[in-house]
């Protein structure tokens, strides 16, 4: 079983994550064994498991902490994340994910959509089986709604050269940050913590998620496809304009106009020109500052948590996400 090497420094958490993956494995059963194997491969191909790790870590702060239930919540969060990735790959027509062929590239978009939908049901079934209150179910369904709204916002803003940083932040607050917020919030509630405590954890997760997505968008302009594990500059081709490009366009919008007006006809050479312009106009540097801002917000709230070994891990992991290169 492959667990990302970042967890080797935390053996107990690494063990919990391995058990979480085993639980996920046990919940995926399809008559079509090819699709089942594809989902299993996706589960075991080096994902960082950051979201389930945060669920497990935040669950330890409460006196009602149940490791078995915490693993179920963590599994539900990661399965939900997998479902959104599959749907993202369909929308982006992406051939690769984590260095592996995507389900949609191997089996077609229809199969991929149904596979993603199936994972949604697996996630909610886990929550139903292990939640000890309707509140926890409501939290997760509300979170799912916000994630989907973020996806819709992104589609609505495709090829919009007038997109603002505020538009972008609203979009990623649903698309990415909500799942991180949900991971931390549901973990805190699983442990029996108060609503006030859990709400602080929610904002920690949201800030981490914002920084994580901004860094992902920076890497899209600064890494190769081989090092990143998926195609780079794909967002530009799909008309999705992220922080580095938005900041660069604020400096010199006319430099991008002819390139971006090509929309679906933009070529590989065009995207390389966009990448160079983004770098030259300081878009990456400004986006990096924005990611740092959200990381500092998260760390300020993390400092308010009770002292514990888990708090130290949360802090270290949060800081490491800002410095990542993949």
- Which sheet architecture does the biggest sheet show? 2 strands, antiparallel
Shape descriptor = globular
Low-confidence region ranges: none
Radius of gyration: 19 Å
How many strand segments?
2
Biggest sheet, strands in spatial order?
1-2
Mean pLDDT: 89
Order of helices and strands: HHHHEEHHHHHHHHHHHH
Number of DSSP helices? 16
Bin the helical content: over 70%
In terms of structural class, how would the helical and strand content be classed?
mainly alpha
First-last Cα distance? 21 Å
Strand content: under 5%
Characterization of the model:
- By secondary structure, the chain is mainly α.
- A two-stranded antiparallel sheet has the order 1-2.
- 73% of the residues lie in helices and 1% in strands.
Brief write-up:
The chain has 326 residues and is mostly helical. The chain has helices at 11-27, 33-43, 50-59, 67-92, 103-107, 109-130, 134-156, 165-190, 195-222, 225-228, 234-237, 243-251, 254-260, 268-280, 283-302, 309-322, and strands at residues 96-97, 100-101.
